[in-house]
Amino acid sequence: MKKSSKRFFHMPTLGTQILIGLFLGIGIGFLLYHNQMAIMAMQNIGTIFINLIQMIVLPIIVSCLTVGIASIGSMKRLGRIGLKTIIYFEVMTTVALAVGLFVGNIFHPGTLINIHSLHSFNISQYVSVAHTASKGGFWGFVINMIPTNIFKSLAQGNMLAVIVFSVFFGLGVTAVGKQGHILVTFMSSVAKVMFKIVDWIMHIAPLGVFALMGATVAQMGLKSLLPLGYFVALAYGAMIFFVLVCLGLVARIFKFRIMKLLRVIKEEVVLAFTTASSEVALPKNMQRMVKLGVKKAIANFVIPVGYTFNLDGSAIYQSLGVLFLAQAYHLDLSIGKQIVIMLVLMVTSKGMAGVPSASFVVLLTTASTIGIPMSGLALIAGIDRLVDMGRTAVNVVGNSLATAVIGKSEHAFDMNQAHSYYREVVEDPKKAEKI
Protein backbone atom coordinates (compact mmCIF):
# COMPACT_ATOMS: atom_id res chain seq x y z
CA MET A 1 0.00 0.00 0.00
CA LYS A 2 2.79 2.37 0.89
CA LYS A 3 4.59 1.79 -2.39
CA SER A 4 1.48 2.38 -4.48
CA SER A 5 0.64 5.57 -2.57
CA LYS A 6 4.14 6.90 -3.17
CA ARG A 7 3.85 6.21 -6.88
CA PHE A 8 0.46 7.90 -6.99
CA PHE A 9 1.84 11.12 -5.55
CA HIS A 10 4.91 11.29 -7.80
CA MET A 11 5.38 14.70 -9.39
CA PRO A 12 4.71 14.68 -13.15
CA THR A 13 7.65 15.19 -15.50
CA LEU A 14 8.60 18.66 -16.67
CA GLY A 15 7.03 18.04 -20.09
CA THR A 16 3.72 17.07 -18.47
CA GLN A 17 3.84 20.13 -16.22
CA ILE A 18 4.44 22.36 -19.26
CA LEU A 19 1.48 20.81 -21.10
CA ILE A 20 -0.71 21.39 -18.05
CA GLY A 21 0.45 25.02 -18.03
CA LEU A 22 -0.35 25.25 -21.76
CA PHE A 23 -3.96 24.06 -21.41
CA LEU A 24 -4.57 26.06 -18.24
CA GLY A 25 -3.26 29.14 -20.05
CA ILE A 26 -5.65 28.59 -22.96
CA GLY A 27 -8.57 28.15 -20.58
CA ILE A 28 -7.77 31.16 -18.40
CA GLY A 29 -7.02 33.28 -21.47
CA PHE A 30 -10.41 32.38 -22.93
CA LEU A 31 -12.17 33.37 -19.68
CA LEU A 32 -10.21 36.63 -19.40
CA TYR A 33 -10.66 37.71 -23.03
CA HIS A 34 -9.77 41.43 -23.41
CA ASN A 35 -9.15 41.82 -19.65
CA GLN A 36 -6.28 44.29 -19.95
CA MET A 37 -5.07 43.96 -16.35
CA ALA A 38 -4.88 40.17 -16.62
CA ILE A 39 -3.19 40.38 -20.03
CA MET A 40 -0.55 42.79 -18.71
CA ALA A 41 0.12 40.63 -15.64
CA MET A 42 0.50 37.44 -17.71
CA GLN A 43 2.65 39.18 -20.33
CA ASN A 44 4.98 40.45 -17.59
CA ILE A 45 5.30 37.00 -16.01
CA GLY A 46 5.99 35.46 -19.44
CA THR A 47 8.54 38.16 -20.25
CA ILE A 48 10.37 37.50 -16.97
CA PHE A 49 10.67 33.81 -17.86
CA ILE A 50 11.91 34.52 -21.40
CA ASN A 51 14.39 37.12 -20.09
CA LEU A 52 15.79 34.64 -17.56
CA ILE A 53 16.53 32.19 -20.39
CA GLN A 54 17.96 34.88 -22.68
CA MET A 55 20.20 35.96 -19.80
CA ILE A 56 22.19 32.72 -19.99
CA VAL A 57 21.86 31.69 -23.68
CA LEU A 58 24.77 33.76 -25.01
CA PRO A 59 27.21 32.73 -22.22
CA ILE A 60 26.26 29.10 -22.96
CA ILE A 61 26.86 29.54 -26.70
CA VAL A 62 30.23 31.25 -26.21
CA SER A 63 31.48 28.71 -23.66
CA CYS A 64 30.12 25.61 -25.43
CA LEU A 65 31.24 26.67 -28.91
CA THR A 66 34.72 27.52 -27.64
CA VAL A 67 35.08 24.20 -25.81
CA GLY A 68 33.51 22.29 -28.71
CA ILE A 69 35.86 23.75 -31.30
CA ALA A 70 38.87 23.27 -29.04
CA SER A 71 37.80 19.64 -28.52
CA ILE A 72 37.53 19.02 -32.26
CA GLY A 73 41.25 19.60 -32.38
CA SER A 74 42.48 20.08 -35.93
CA MET A 75 41.58 22.82 -38.37
CA LYS A 76 41.09 20.15 -41.05
CA ARG A 77 38.46 18.29 -39.02
CA LEU A 78 36.71 21.52 -38.02
CA GLY A 79 36.57 22.60 -41.66
CA ARG A 80 35.11 19.24 -42.66
CA ILE A 81 32.46 19.35 -39.93
CA GLY A 82 31.64 22.98 -40.71
CA LEU A 83 31.27 22.28 -44.43
CA LYS A 84 29.04 19.25 -43.80
CA THR A 85 26.89 21.25 -41.41
CA ILE A 86 26.38 24.20 -43.77
CA ILE A 87 25.63 21.93 -46.76
CA TYR A 88 23.13 19.94 -44.71
CA PHE A 89 21.45 23.13 -43.49
CA GLU A 90 21.14 24.54 -47.00
CA VAL A 91 19.71 21.31 -48.42
CA MET A 92 17.08 21.00 -45.67
CA THR A 93 16.17 24.69 -45.92
CA THR A 94 15.60 24.25 -49.67
CA VAL A 95 13.42 21.19 -49.03
CA ALA A 96 11.42 23.11 -46.40
CA LEU A 97 10.85 26.03 -48.78
CA ALA A 98 9.76 23.60 -51.51
CA VAL A 99 7.28 21.94 -49.11
CA GLY A 100 5.69 25.32 -48.34
CA LEU A 101 5.35 26.15 -52.04
CA PHE A 102 4.03 22.66 -52.85
CA VAL A 103 1.29 22.85 -50.19
CA GLY A 104 0.35 26.36 -51.32
CA ASN A 105 0.05 25.29 -54.96
CA ILE A 106 -2.01 22.19 -54.14
CA PHE A 107 -4.50 23.68 -51.67
CA HIS A 108 -4.62 27.36 -52.78
CA PRO A 109 -5.39 28.84 -49.33
CA GLY A 110 -5.35 32.44 -50.57
CA THR A 111 -8.15 31.99 -53.08
CA LEU A 112 -10.65 31.27 -50.29
CA ILE A 113 -9.97 34.53 -48.46
CA ASN A 114 -12.00 37.71 -48.87
CA ILE A 115 -9.08 40.10 -48.51
CA HIS A 116 -11.30 43.04 -47.69
CA SER A 117 -13.24 41.37 -44.89
CA LEU A 118 -10.29 40.59 -42.62
CA HIS A 119 -9.18 42.75 -39.73
CA SER A 120 -5.75 44.34 -40.21
CA PHE A 121 -3.07 44.63 -37.54
CA ASN A 122 -0.45 47.30 -37.04
CA ILE A 123 2.84 46.15 -38.57
CA SER A 124 4.79 49.41 -38.29
CA GLN A 125 7.31 47.76 -35.96
CA TYR A 126 8.00 45.03 -38.54
CA VAL A 127 8.29 47.57 -41.38
CA SER A 128 11.00 49.56 -39.62
CA VAL A 129 12.89 46.39 -38.69
CA ALA A 130 12.65 45.06 -42.25
CA HIS A 131 13.92 48.34 -43.68
CA THR A 132 16.90 48.38 -41.32
CA ALA A 133 17.71 44.68 -41.72
CA SER A 134 17.57 44.64 -45.52
CA LYS A 135 19.31 47.97 -46.07
CA GLY A 136 22.82 46.56 -46.08
CA GLY A 137 22.06 43.73 -48.50
CA PHE A 138 24.41 40.77 -48.84
CA TRP A 139 27.59 42.67 -48.03
CA GLY A 140 25.95 44.30 -45.04
CA PHE A 141 25.09 40.84 -43.77
CA VAL A 142 28.67 39.60 -44.23
CA ILE A 143 30.18 42.69 -42.60
CA ASN A 144 27.81 42.44 -39.62
CA MET A 145 29.01 38.88 -39.04
CA ILE A 146 32.41 40.25 -37.98
CA PRO A 147 32.17 41.89 -34.56
CA THR A 148 34.15 45.07 -33.95
CA ASN A 149 33.41 44.76 -30.25
CA ILE A 150 32.43 41.34 -28.90
CA PHE A 151 30.99 42.84 -25.71
CA LYS A 152 28.75 45.12 -27.78
CA SER A 153 27.63 42.10 -29.84
CA LEU A 154 26.85 40.19 -26.66
CA ALA A 155 24.87 43.15 -25.28
CA GLN A 156 22.90 43.50 -28.53
CA GLY A 157 22.30 39.75 -28.86
CA ASN A 158 23.99 39.65 -32.29
CA MET A 159 24.11 35.86 -32.55
CA LEU A 160 26.05 35.66 -35.83
CA ALA A 161 28.82 37.91 -34.55
CA VAL A 162 29.02 35.96 -31.28
CA ILE A 163 29.29 32.66 -33.18
CA VAL A 164 32.06 34.01 -35.44
CA PHE A 165 34.01 35.29 -32.43
CA SER A 166 33.56 31.98 -30.58
CA VAL A 167 34.85 30.05 -33.60
CA PHE A 168 37.99 32.19 -33.82
CA PHE A 169 38.47 32.09 -30.06
CA GLY A 170 38.17 28.29 -30.02
CA LEU A 171 40.66 28.00 -32.88
CA GLY A 172 43.06 30.31 -31.04
CA VAL A 173 42.78 28.26 -27.87
CA THR A 174 43.59 25.12 -29.88
CA ALA A 175 46.53 26.79 -31.64
CA VAL A 176 48.37 27.77 -28.44
CA GLY A 177 48.43 24.17 -27.23
CA LYS A 178 48.94 23.47 -23.51
CA GLN A 179 48.69 27.12 -22.58
CA GLY A 180 45.13 27.11 -23.84
CA HIS A 181 44.07 24.22 -21.60
CA ILE A 182 43.34 26.55 -18.71
CA LEU A 183 40.88 28.46 -20.91
CA VAL A 184 39.17 25.23 -21.98
CA THR A 185 38.83 24.25 -18.32
CA PHE A 186 37.48 27.71 -17.46
CA MET A 187 34.95 27.70 -20.32
CA SER A 188 33.84 24.17 -19.39
CA SER A 189 33.21 25.39 -15.85
CA VAL A 190 31.26 28.40 -17.18
CA ALA A 191 29.09 26.06 -19.27
CA LYS A 192 28.40 23.80 -16.27
CA VAL A 193 27.41 26.80 -14.13
CA MET A 194 25.11 28.12 -16.88
CA PHE A 195 23.45 24.73 -17.31
CA LYS A 196 22.89 24.54 -13.55
CA ILE A 197 21.14 27.92 -13.75
CA VAL A 198 19.05 26.54 -16.63
CA ASP A 199 17.93 23.68 -14.37
CA TRP A 200 16.79 26.22 -11.77
CA ILE A 201 14.97 28.37 -14.32
CA MET A 202 13.17 25.37 -15.83
CA HIS A 203 11.34 24.83 -12.55
CA ILE A 204 9.23 27.89 -13.38
CA ALA A 205 8.78 26.91 -17.07
CA PRO A 206 5.18 25.69 -16.54
CA LEU A 207 4.29 29.07 -14.99
CA GLY A 208 5.99 30.93 -17.85
CA VAL A 209 4.16 28.83 -20.45
CA PHE A 210 0.84 29.35 -18.65
CA ALA A 211 1.35 33.12 -18.64
CA LEU A 212 2.46 33.36 -22.28
CA MET A 213 -0.41 31.23 -23.59
CA GLY A 214 -2.94 32.96 -21.36
CA ALA A 215 -1.84 36.40 -22.56
CA THR A 216 -1.95 35.33 -26.23
CA VAL A 217 -5.46 33.84 -26.06
CA ALA A 218 -6.82 36.67 -23.88
CA GLN A 219 -5.46 39.27 -26.28
CA MET A 220 -6.38 37.69 -29.60
CA GLY A 221 -9.43 35.63 -28.74
CA LEU A 222 -10.42 32.51 -30.64
CA LYS A 223 -12.98 34.09 -32.97
CA SER A 224 -10.37 36.35 -34.59
CA LEU A 225 -8.49 33.26 -35.77
CA LEU A 226 -11.38 31.66 -37.65
CA PRO A 227 -11.13 33.62 -40.96
CA LEU A 228 -7.48 32.59 -41.29
CA GLY A 229 -7.95 29.16 -39.74
CA TYR A 230 -7.47 27.39 -43.08
CA PHE A 231 -4.07 29.01 -43.59
CA VAL A 232 -3.03 28.13 -40.03
CA ALA A 233 -4.20 24.53 -40.51
CA LEU A 234 -2.28 24.22 -43.80
CA ALA A 235 0.85 25.69 -42.22
CA TYR A 236 0.71 23.10 -39.43
CA GLY A 237 -0.10 20.35 -41.91
CA ALA A 238 2.94 21.29 -44.00
CA MET A 239 5.15 21.33 -40.91
CA ILE A 240 3.91 17.93 -39.74
CA PHE A 241 4.48 16.51 -43.24
CA PHE A 242 8.02 17.94 -43.28
CA VAL A 243 8.88 16.45 -39.88
CA LEU A 244 7.37 13.01 -40.40
CA VAL A 245 8.16 12.51 -44.10
CA CYS A 246 11.16 14.70 -45.03
CA LEU A 247 13.04 14.56 -41.73
CA GLY A 248 11.80 11.00 -41.25
CA LEU A 249 13.42 9.98 -44.55
CA VAL A 250 16.70 11.66 -43.59
CA ALA A 251 16.60 9.92 -40.22
CA ARG A 252 15.96 6.57 -41.91
CA ILE A 253 18.95 7.08 -44.25
CA PHE A 254 21.18 7.58 -41.22
CA LYS A 255 19.66 4.62 -39.33
CA PHE A 256 17.46 6.63 -36.95
CA ARG A 257 13.73 6.69 -36.37
CA ILE A 258 12.21 10.15 -36.27
CA MET A 259 9.49 9.07 -33.82
CA LYS A 260 12.11 7.91 -31.34
CA LEU A 261 13.94 11.21 -31.64
CA LEU A 262 10.68 13.10 -31.10
CA ARG A 263 10.03 10.97 -28.01
CA VAL A 264 13.44 11.91 -26.60
CA ILE A 265 13.22 15.67 -27.28
CA LYS A 266 9.50 16.04 -26.57
CA GLU A 267 10.08 18.39 -23.61
CA GLU A 268 12.24 20.74 -25.67
CA VAL A 269 9.69 20.66 -28.52
CA VAL A 270 6.80 21.42 -26.15
CA LEU A 271 8.80 24.20 -24.53
CA ALA A 272 9.67 25.76 -27.91
CA PHE A 273 6.07 25.43 -29.06
CA THR A 274 4.48 26.98 -26.00
CA THR A 275 6.94 29.88 -25.70
CA ALA A 276 7.54 30.41 -29.47
CA SER A 277 11.23 30.86 -28.60
CA SER A 278 14.13 28.71 -29.81
CA GLU A 279 16.35 30.34 -27.20
CA VAL A 280 14.32 28.84 -24.37
CA ALA A 281 14.82 25.30 -25.68
CA LEU A 282 18.45 25.69 -26.85
CA PRO A 283 20.33 24.96 -23.57
CA LYS A 284 18.28 21.87 -22.71
CA ASN A 285 18.42 20.70 -26.32
CA MET A 286 22.21 20.72 -26.25
CA GLN A 287 22.23 18.72 -23.03
CA ARG A 288 19.64 16.29 -24.38
CA MET A 289 21.59 15.46 -27.55
CA VAL A 290 24.75 14.80 -25.52
CA LYS A 291 22.75 12.44 -23.26
CA LEU A 292 21.45 10.75 -26.40
CA GLY A 293 25.00 9.85 -27.40
CA VAL A 294 26.26 12.68 -29.63
CA LYS A 295 29.77 13.81 -28.70
CA LYS A 296 29.70 17.10 -26.82
CA ALA A 297 32.03 18.79 -29.33
CA ILE A 298 29.56 18.10 -32.17
CA ALA A 299 26.45 19.10 -30.22
CA ASN A 300 28.13 22.27 -28.95
CA PHE A 301 28.96 23.28 -32.53
CA VAL A 302 25.94 22.20 -34.60
CA ILE A 303 23.05 23.35 -32.39
CA PRO A 304 24.21 26.99 -31.87
CA VAL A 305 25.01 27.33 -35.59
CA GLY A 306 21.68 25.73 -36.48
CA TYR A 307 19.91 28.23 -34.25
CA THR A 308 20.92 30.85 -36.82
CA PHE A 309 21.19 28.94 -40.10
CA ASN A 310 18.80 25.97 -39.91
CA LEU A 311 15.24 27.27 -39.51
CA ASP A 312 13.13 24.68 -41.30
CA GLY A 313 9.80 25.65 -39.74
CA SER A 314 10.37 29.30 -40.56
CA ALA A 315 11.22 28.40 -44.18
CA ILE A 316 7.92 26.51 -44.59
CA TYR A 317 5.95 29.43 -43.17
CA GLN A 318 7.70 32.00 -45.35
CA SER A 319 7.21 30.23 -48.69
CA LEU A 320 3.61 29.25 -47.87
CA GLY A 321 2.90 32.78 -46.61
CA VAL A 322 4.18 34.46 -49.78
CA LEU A 323 2.06 32.15 -51.96
CA PHE A 324 -0.99 32.65 -49.72
CA LEU A 325 -0.80 36.44 -50.03
CA ALA A 326 -0.15 36.31 -53.78
CA GLN A 327 -3.25 34.14 -54.26
CA ALA A 328 -5.33 36.42 -52.02
CA TYR A 329 -4.41 39.39 -54.25
CA HIS A 330 -4.86 37.31 -57.44
CA LEU A 331 -1.22 37.66 -58.45
CA ASP A 332 -0.16 35.04 -60.96
CA LEU A 333 3.11 33.40 -59.92
CA SER A 334 4.59 31.08 -62.54
CA ILE A 335 6.88 28.21 -61.60
CA GLY A 336 9.84 30.35 -62.66
CA LYS A 337 8.77 33.18 -60.34
CA GLN A 338 8.27 30.73 -57.49
CA ILE A 339 11.78 29.37 -57.97
CA VAL A 340 13.10 32.93 -57.84
CA ILE A 341 11.11 33.51 -54.63
CA MET A 342 12.64 30.36 -53.15
CA LEU A 343 16.15 31.58 -53.98
CA VAL A 344 15.37 35.02 -52.53
CA LEU A 345 14.04 33.43 -49.34
CA MET A 346 17.19 31.32 -49.01
CA VAL A 347 19.29 34.50 -49.00
CA THR A 348 17.00 36.78 -46.98
CA SER A 349 16.34 34.18 -44.28
CA LYS A 350 20.07 34.00 -43.56
CA GLY A 351 20.46 37.76 -43.82
CA MET A 352 17.75 38.30 -41.18
CA ALA A 353 19.25 35.86 -38.71
CA GLY A 354 19.18 37.39 -35.25
CA VAL A 355 16.65 40.07 -36.25
CA PRO A 356 13.62 40.31 -33.90
CA SER A 357 10.52 38.61 -35.38
CA ALA A 358 12.82 37.38 -38.16
CA SER A 359 10.34 35.06 -39.92
CA PHE A 360 7.70 37.76 -40.35
CA VAL A 361 10.36 40.31 -41.36
CA VAL A 362 11.65 37.93 -44.05
CA LEU A 363 8.09 37.44 -45.29
CA LEU A 364 7.57 41.20 -45.35
CA THR A 365 10.80 41.85 -47.27
CA THR A 366 10.18 39.08 -49.82
CA ALA A 367 6.47 39.78 -50.40
CA SER A 368 7.12 43.43 -51.18
CA THR A 369 9.44 42.41 -54.06
CA ILE A 370 6.58 40.71 -55.95
CA GLY A 371 4.06 43.51 -55.58
CA ILE A 372 2.06 42.39 -52.55
CA PRO A 373 0.65 45.51 -50.79
CA MET A 374 1.87 46.25 -47.27
CA SER A 375 -1.70 45.90 -46.04
CA GLY A 376 -1.59 42.26 -47.07
CA LEU A 377 1.05 41.48 -44.51
CA ALA A 378 -1.05 43.23 -41.87
CA LEU A 379 -3.77 40.63 -42.44
CA ILE A 380 -1.70 37.70 -41.21
CA ALA A 381 0.25 39.60 -38.56
CA GLY A 382 -2.50 38.74 -36.09
CA ILE A 383 -1.97 34.99 -36.43
CA ASP A 384 1.82 35.21 -36.67
CA ARG A 385 2.24 34.29 -33.01
CA LEU A 386 0.06 31.20 -33.44
CA VAL A 387 2.06 29.95 -36.44
CA ASP A 388 5.31 31.02 -34.74
CA MET A 389 4.73 28.37 -32.09
CA GLY A 390 4.66 25.60 -34.68
CA ARG A 391 7.59 26.81 -36.75
CA THR A 392 9.75 27.22 -33.62
CA ALA A 393 9.02 23.63 -32.59
CA VAL A 394 9.96 22.40 -36.10
CA ASN A 395 13.19 24.41 -35.92
CA VAL A 396 14.12 22.55 -32.72
CA VAL A 397 13.35 19.16 -34.28
CA GLY A 398 15.38 20.03 -37.38
CA ASN A 399 18.42 21.08 -35.36
CA SER A 400 18.21 17.99 -33.18
CA LEU A 401 18.21 15.71 -36.21
CA ALA A 402 21.02 17.73 -37.81
CA THR A 403 23.14 17.17 -34.69
CA ALA A 404 22.51 13.44 -34.82
CA VAL A 405 23.24 13.28 -38.57
CA ILE A 406 26.52 15.20 -38.34
CA GLY A 407 27.50 13.16 -35.28
CA LYS A 408 26.79 9.90 -37.14
CA SER A 409 28.73 11.05 -40.21
CA GLU A 410 31.73 11.86 -38.01
CA HIS A 411 31.53 8.59 -36.04
CA ALA A 412 30.81 10.74 -33.00
CA PHE A 413 27.47 9.18 -32.06
CA ASP A 414 27.26 6.27 -29.60
CA MET A 415 24.25 4.26 -30.82
CA ASN A 416 24.37 1.96 -27.79
CA GLN A 417 24.07 4.98 -25.52
CA ALA A 418 21.24 6.28 -27.72
CA HIS A 419 19.27 3.02 -27.36
CA SER A 420 19.93 2.91 -23.62
CA TYR A 421 18.87 6.53 -23.13
CA TYR A 422 15.75 6.05 -25.25
CA ARG A 423 14.70 3.16 -22.99
CA GLU A 424 15.25 5.41 -19.97
CA VAL A 425 13.08 8.13 -21.52
CA VAL A 426 10.27 5.66 -22.28
CA GLU A 427 10.41 3.63 -19.06
CA ASP A 428 11.41 6.24 -16.48
CA PRO A 429 11.25 9.86 -17.74
CA LYS A 430 12.04 11.28 -14.28
CA LYS A 431 15.29 9.30 -14.16
CA ALA A 432 16.17 10.30 -17.75
CA GLU A 433 15.90 14.00 -16.79
CA LYS A 434 18.58 13.52 -14.13
CA ILE A 435 21.10 11.49 -16.16
Outline the secondary-structure elements.
Layout lengths: L1 H7 L5 H18 L4 H37 L2 H33 L16 H12 L1 H9 L4 H7 L2 H17 L5 H22 L2 H16 L8 H25 L4 H7 L1 H10 L2 H15 L3 H14 L2 H17 L6 H17 L6 H11 L5 H8 L2 H26 L5 H13 L1 H6 L1
Helix pairs in contact: 2-10, 2-13, 3-8, 3-9, 3-10, 3-14, 3-15, 4-11, 4-15, 4-16, 4-17, 5-18, 11-16, 11-20, 12-21, 13-14, 13-20, 14-15, 14-20, 15-20, 16-17, 16-18, 16-20, 17-18
Instruction: Give the end-to-end Cα distance, rounded to a whole number of Å.
Output: 29 Å
Structural class: mainly alpha
The strand count comes to 0
Question: Helix-strand pattern, N to C?
Answer: HHHHHHHHHHHHHHHHHHHHHH
Please identify, by name, the CATH architecture: Orthogonal Bundle
Give the tags.
435 residues; mainly alpha; Proton glutamate symport protein; disordered N terminus
In short:
The chain is built from 22 helices and no strands.
Structure in words:
The protein is an all-alpha fold. The protein has a single domain (13-434), classed as Proton glutamate symport protein (Orthogonal Bundle). The chain is built from 22 helices and no strands. The protein has helices at residues 2-8, 14-31, 36-72, 75-107, 124-135, 137-145, 150-156, 159-175, 181-202, 205-220, 229-253, 258-264, 266-275, 278-292, 296-309, 312-328, 335-351, 358-368, 374-381, 384-409, 415-427, 429-434. The chain is globular, with a radius of gyration of 22 Å. Mean pLDDT is 81; it is low at 1-9.
